[in-house]
Amino acid sequence: MPPPSITVDRCLCRAVPFARLLPGARDAGWDLEDLVRETGCGGQCGLCRPYLRRMLATGETTFHELLTEPPGPGPADPHPATP
Ligand code: FES
Known about the structure:
Layout: E1 10-11, E2 16-17, H1 18-28, H2 32-39, H3 49-58
Antiparallel strand pairs: 1-2
The chain binds FE2/S2 (inorganic) cluster.
């Protein structure tokens, strides 16, 4: 049996395809935090954040693998650690 496949091509919380985000992000020179602030994508559940990060780095807008980020302070963490 072949392994299950996935396709991730959008921020599900905001229902915005990565392909729609990339041109504006590139034109504006946004990093991930700029993109989150300006579009709201990545600012809700945060599961799309590793995909957005890779999109900005590589220009890819469709992914067929699970990407995760280590836990840490961010929009998905309502109780970030204090120094
Ligand atoms: S999938 Fe993008 S913030 Fe939830």
